[in-house]
Amino acid sequence: MSAFVQPCFLYPPNIQILDLATLVSLYRSRGEPFDVPAAEIVSCAVTHRIIKRTKRWFGLHYSQKAWDSLLTTGSEGYPLTPAEFNILGLAGLPPQPPLTREFAQKNCGTTAELGYLIINDLVQFGFLEATAGHELYLAERGEIALDGISRRLYGTEFKPELLWYYQT
After folding, report:
1. What is the 3-state secondary structure (H, E, C) of 58-105?
2. Which residues of 9-25 are buried (b: 16+ CB within 10 A; e: fewer)?
3. In this predicted model, what pLDDT tens digit does every residue of 53-62 receive, in sequence order?
4. Which residues pair with 50 in a beta bridge?
């Protein structure tokens, strides 16, 4: 992938070393407020300033202001990453319509297990629509989020060639 235009949330590149229970726990607790214990020192991953109240993302800590600065226009507060970009993009323009959940999980740019969790949340937040046959479609809210994350990551409107699937 090319260099990102603006800072964004990123999943750890070695996420595959996590066991499933840890992965689920970290994913589900993302963005929850966290009070740093008095004996610990934590700094913001963006500003590098010491903070006492944070929001966490896979072991990284953010001040509220830094967290808000990483949220993408059109994401409605949902933290979008390149993995969400890939899933939303595949749903919008699938290489082999219709897009199946399994194909999206395998081609999201991270582990299939994390892809499964991401897809569930994208459906729950109304960015994707899923059928009983495990087919995925981009919802209107998803189109707006896809445009926002494309502009954040690449500084341009969405193009299929930006997807991880076409770069590998």
Report:
1. CCEEECHHHHHHHCCCCCCCCCCCHHHHHHHHHHHCCCCCCEEHHHHH
2. bebeeebeebeeeebee
3. 999 999 999 9
4. 43
